[in-house]
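Worked example 2:
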Amino acid sequence: MAKNIAKLMITVFIFTLSLLFSFPYQPGWPQEIEGGVEFSSPVLVDINNDDTLEVLIAGNTEKVYLFNFRGEIMPGWPKQTASPGGAQETSSPSVGDIDNDGEMEIVYASDVGKLFAWELNGNEVNGFPVNLNDKVIRVCATLEDIDADDTLEICIGTGVSQYKFFVYRHDGSLLFSKDVEYRIHSTAAVADIDKDGGMEIVHGIDRNIQYGVYAWESNGTACTGWPQQTGHHVDGSPALADINNDSTYEIFVGSIDNKVYGWNYLGQNLASWPNIVGSGVYEGVISSPAIGDIDNDSILEIIIGRGIIQSTYGAIFAFSANGDTLPGFPINIVTGSVTSSPVLADIDDSPATSMAA
């Protein structure tokens, strides 16, 4: 079974050329993005309720694109995020009905430090864009109803010199901002981690001097037990899940210090965590963990990539809740690092694996 799991994980995580050319292109695709795409991930969502998925992505020439399923640009798009010739866009769009009007909005934090929100037709949402007074590097906006007002708040951190974490309301007004120790490259995760009825916000910071991961209450106060220290900076987004069935959430994240951390909601190390995944300067972790029941044993596992630059130190690790490495892991990827986040799914209907998220 371990061999079958290992083969499945390779198929799921590594997008090889052989896989790319095994299937015909969808009609209307591929589509060329002016200047190419460096870091932005495509977002697939039925944004106009036509029972097909639209495709959102940011390009290197400071534009956000919205395609329909046939590869056609939607009316009012693309949207310019900065003057042409500036820095490349490195984050990904987010989608949600932020103002609870029954229609989806597109939210994007640009590399030049503007927080945009657009309607489906490309018109700017009232109150946007918001000037963050600093650049945004690789951080995606997290949309969640933080204060239980039936609208979505927008969580975002800045990444060059200001060192702040912001939560904005749907109308562009500021709910709160918090000073942090250093720049933020980690997209925030949001959940009621302590099951007190209120949402908490968890994110990392780019370089560790004292603290590596922060957790905030919905009013901006620090959660009990947080922030927590890591040995180096945290680029990945934390994963939040009740992995041990104690009715509260655990927090997992990797760091450049070659470790994967696991805490309870009070910031206390879980038993047998953190776990070391490497020993060299190229063997840190910037991949965000994925959590799911990959072996169909009704228990959640933690899957994460290793490697910080293109090298021969890439690997995929899978841990049980108690920190043990699963049979068949790690899977070494000698062609390069694994810097992206794993995606877990049962793509072959194998009874030895389950659907995971």
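Residues 1-20, 353-357 have pLDDT under 50 and may be disordered. The longest strand covers residues 54-59.
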